[in-house]
């Protein structure tokens, strides 16, 4: 597998080189709205630690991302009166 590319779009978002609409940010994660949403509230939650995908992220960072994703999902259900949530990992 290729090495982590620090010039990927998510790394640039984390460094502030690409703009985003932040939904949540803390020391370990960033959640922001997708620029090509599949539906209202489509939000990406990413770890701040460099990782190409779910196989590269540490178990601790992955668990933290999952907790933040659940928090964001609950807020989206309330805000959009959604009847469900779809979560994918990449």
Global Rg: 13 Å
DSSP strand content: 15-25%
Report the biggest beta sheet as strand number plus sense, adding barrel if it closes: 3 strands, antiparallel
Percent helix range: 25-40%
Q: Topology as H/E string? A: HEEEH
In short:
The protein is an alpha+beta fold and 90 residues long. The chain has helices at residues 9-14, 59-80; strands at 22-25, 29-33, 43-47.
Tags for this model:
90 residues; alpha+beta; 2 helices
Description:
- This protein has about 90 residues and is an alpha+beta fold.
- The chain has two helices and three strands; from the N terminus they run H-E-E-E-H.
- The protein has helices at about 10-15, 60-80, and strands at about 20-25, 30-35, 45.
- The mean pLDDT is about 95.
Layout of helices and strands, plus pairs?
Blueprint: H1 9-14, E1 22-25, E2 29-33, E3 43-47, H2 59-80
Antiparallel strand pairs: 1-2, 2-3
